[in-house]
Amino acid sequence: MQRNNKTLSNHRLSVTAISTVIAGTCTSALAADDFATVVIDYTPAPGLFINDVAFNDPNNALGAPVGGDTSNPDLTKLVSLGGFGGSITLGFNKTVLNHPSNPGDLDAIVFGNAFWSSDDPTRRFAEAAHIEISLDENSNGIADDAWYIIRGSSLPVIPDTVWRDQAWDDDAGTTSIPPAFVEDYPDPSFFPGIGSTYTTGAYELPPEFETTVLVHPQGPGATEETHWGYADVSPTIAKPAGKSASVFYTTPDDPLSVGISPDSGGGDAFDIDWAVDPITGDPAGLLGFDFIRITTAVQFDSGPLGEISAEIGGVADVRSIILLGDINGDGIVDTADLGILIGAFGTSNPDADLNGDGIVDTADLGLLLSQYGNEA
After folding, report:
1. Interacting residues of 195 by C-beta distance below 8 A, sequence separation 6+
2. What is the pTM for the complete model shown?
């Protein structure tokens, strides 16, 4: 797996984009969605469920998740990543912003099928995956810009020091290379591009994750969470009747507190500010991201229950408390707001200066377009 460490500059739109908007042809902005909308890549590692059609459709990671309760996860809309290094890369049709008005400064949520053992939130059946994000800096719609790792609670200051490659082959039992069971190897009818050998890799999480039950070190009664910043470690909750998925599943749980926050759909929320350069450990300083890569980051086989293998059911953009881009305050980002911004272009109008840098320019236009069509 290739890891990219290009220096990231601020995301900017060109003058051509301005003229496109004025012409009213920016249709992609009109279709902005609260959830990931496209599969960029799906390369699972060998695993118990990757050849099961119920769990190997990467499209199950698109759109809103389907939840269960804290002790009984829903299994109808998930894709399995397989063992160590198995990954999925998803894209949004808008930039997920590092938004200062988001609840708890949290920007996105990854949903899996983790659950609590005996309904105890300090004992979790969790299959942790690390999260990487990338901003489409060159605006080509391809995930070819720098990738940054959400370091979370447990990766080292320089994550690259724990990167590890894992080789796999389909000669189970005849070589020292895993998997041990040939039926866990990707079936070519599902994965024709993988071949008889391949390699995955991940930033490996520490030994406390190498277990079927992730135990809080402070035991029952703990209130401050110690494992956060990773996918598939927190339950996904079923949407109550009458609730909108676009509201319920964009309201983040507090990942730093034990339990599930009221009115939240659960899942694993993270702050874009947690992203770092994996080689230097320096903060990424991202304005947002367009692509997300989720990778099983633990190598552990529990026997009858199989390997640790993250399952993913959706990725959401957190809904802001204040709707960015709603310049006229009518509860929707639309042509009225766009007209105000274009009229203020090149000035220091504070209402249209969405990023607060003292001038209304293409950066502010980009922020407005990323939210176009959103409602409070």
Report:
1. none
2. 0.81
Where do the domains of the chain lie, and which CATH numbers do they carry? 1-31+328-376 (1.10.1330.10), 35-321 (no CATH)
| Residue 207 one-letter amino acid | P
The model's confidence at residue 243, banded by pLDDT at 50, 70 and 90, is confident
Whether the Cβ atoms of residue 53 and residue 313 lie closer than 8 Å to each other:
no
String of b and e for 67-91 (b: at least 16 CB within 10 Å)? bbbbeebbeebbbbbbbbbbbbbbb
Q: How many CB atoms lie within 10 A of CB 2?
A: 6
For the segment 8-23, what is each residue's pLDDT rounded down to a tens digit? 222 323 323 333 333 3
